[in-house]
Amino acid sequence: MAFVRINGILLHYRLAGPPAAPAIVLVNSLGTDARIWDQVVALMSGYYRILSYDKRGHGLSDAPPGDYALEHHVDDLAGLLQHLDINHVAVVGVSVGGLIAQAFALRHPDRLSALVLCDTAAKVGDETMWNSRIAAVRENGIGSLAETIMARWFTESFRRDRREELAGWQNMVLRMPLDGYAGTCAALRDADLRGSIAAITTPTLVVVGDQDLSTPVELVRDMANRIADSRFEIIGDCGHIPSIEQPHALVSLITAFLEEAGHG
Ligand SMILES: O=C(O)CC1=CCC(=O)O1
């Protein structure tokens, strides 16, 4: 675990795996922190140098007040990679982390060797939906939304059979800084990459859980269709966060893809 100040924001990050191995960075979704990748890191860190971090507003990183923009998150990621002298990397992003990954691919194609987009889209939700979520959180706290969020993240069977884990991940959300959550909702509200991602030329793997209620299969497929060099895979018995619900299936898709992309 380590900390660095990037763009005036204190960021918490973790590095695992052999320093000379091919580098991967894992980028989080709204309301989650680097811990959602723990099982993925355990499975992959024998072969890859893996960077995970808490994006601004989340985990142990700073949560400044006000609206965030997708570009803030991209600048933070670029600054963190520069600080760590990681010049060539595969970016794996889930949900808003996948939007950050797409925007990073458009801004820094020369620094990217492969892209993995999990349960994400070129446009997630709409202005009304994000504004009402921001208002609900500001007026009534994140607790007022916690059960709905869990139902969107996890399959019914996970919620029924893995109650302690569910309670633990719900605690993560409940402990989120309000400013971080609302600020990132604003970034999601304002981000629309539908008109630009056709310019992504990096080899891309797109994955989605078959029961994802936040970014459903057809929405994610639409993003994959806009990226020429992309492969689309559906993970069974999985909701919005495959690194928690189906880490083995996710890791086998990622490792096979990275090897083919020459990043393994
Ligand atoms: O609906 C949710 O909370 C899930 C989600 C949407 C965008 C994101 O990053 O997470």
From TrEMBL:
InterPro entries: AB_hydrolase_1, AB_hydrolase_fold, AB_hydrolase_sf, PcaD/CatD. One of its GO terms (molecular function) is 3-oxoadipate enol-lactonase activity. Residues 22-246 form the AB hydrolase-1 domain. Pfam families: Abhydrolase_1. GO terms for biological process: beta-ketoadipate pathway. This is 3-oxoadipate enol-lactonase. It comes from Devosia psychrophila. The lineage of its organism: Bacteria, Pseudomonadati, Pseudomonadota, Alphaproteobacteria, Hyphomicrobiales.
